[in-house]
Design brief:
By secondary structure, the chain is mainly beta. The chain has no helices and 18 strands. The strands form five sheets. The chain has a four-stranded antiparallel sheet, with no helix packed on it. The relative contact order is 0.10.
């Protein structure tokens, strides 16, 4: 860690033994991290934009296991990393889009209509994208579908959540609370 520059060293800590081991070390800022403990995987991004801290030109998106074996899966800046274990992938925003990285390290562009991370259903089969900035709305699509998602709301959507059975999406916008039935794609005001 260096003040003003951020973390350069990513470590795993075994809480039962107290042993710490290095997963990654870079001379650039480690900008984001997403962890999948059940698979022992870490997706992390190394940022090129911290000019005063940049000592090498290595930047991008990297997938590592907890032993430290890592490989670069994307060259460029990536932000907002998350793990969506129900879908078997990590997600990250890059430029004006969203990419997925499966647990084998395969990178794929998504059909995201906006550069926001998806909210994946509990069963891992569908996702929604919401936006309350510039391009407004809520979109839904099967995770496996490469076609553009269907836009179900055109107003700014502030938050969305799936029900436990993956059959409904509840969301809030400036006019109230709504429920979307995933099977019929029927939208209903709740309050």
């Amino acid at each position: 860690w260096e003040p003003g520059c951020g973390a350069y060293d990513l470590r795993a800590l075994d809480i039962t033994t107290g042993e710490s081991r290095q997963i990654a070390a870079y001379l650039n800022e480690i900008a984001g991290v997403a962890i999948n403990p059940s698979h022992g995987l870490v997706l992390y991004s190394v940022d090129e934009n911290v000019a005063e801290c940049q000592l090498t030109d290595v930047h991008g998106l990297f997938l590592a296991d907890l032993t430290g074996a890592a490989r670069q899966v994307y060259s460029g800046n990536a932000y907002q990393l998350i793990d969506a274990p129900q879908s078997g992938r990590f997600f990250a925003t890059i430029d004006e889009s969203v990419v997925s990285v499966d647990y084998d390290g395969n990178l794929a562009e998504t059909s995201a209509p906006v550069a926001v991370l998806p909210i994946v259903s509990p069963d891992g089969t569908q996702w929604v994208f919401i936006s309350n900035y510039e391009t407004y709305g809520l979109w839904i699509s099967p995770v496996s579908d490469s076609a553009p998602p269907a836009q179900m709301a055109e107003d700014a959507v502030n938050a969305a959540v799936w029900d436990a059975g993956s059959a409904l999406v509840f969301f809030i916008n400036d006019t109230g609370l709504y429920k979307l039935d995933v099977n019929s794609l029927q939208l209903q005001a709740v309050s």
